[in-house]
Amino acid sequence: xxxxxxxxxxxxxxxxxxxxxxxxxxxxxxxxxxxxxxxxxxxxxxxxxxxxxxxxxxxxxxxxxxxxxxxxxxxxxxxxxxxxxxxxxxxxxxxxxxxxxxxxxxxxxxxxxxxxxxxxxxxxxxx
Length: 127
Prior knowledge:
Elements: E1 2-4, H1 6-14, H2 21-29, E2 33-36, H3 37-48, H4 58-67, E3 70-73, H5 77-83, H6 93-105, E4 108-111, E5 123-125
Parallel strand pairs: 1-2, 1-4, 2-3, 4-5
């Protein structure tokens, strides 16, 4: 089971040729894929502040995920609690919560972030 990091979700939606061959194969074939609601929140914030120029609304992204059988992973209190236990390697609160969700749900994160693999979490390179 896999969890798309925000960057992998954006690559999948906006520039799929950017994805690594392995990430692309997983996304196309895996039966249980997830994206965190945290990623949708991060995209919304980055669109608002002008840091991310994609025209899709959050509702459209959610619909595209649904069409690809990618489930939206909601946040649980145990996952929030887990963020406090993570070493301070990564300061990004979105990534810390995604890491916590992966750990608590035994998911492998598909990511282009070079810092996430420094945690005790399974990863696949998105690029």
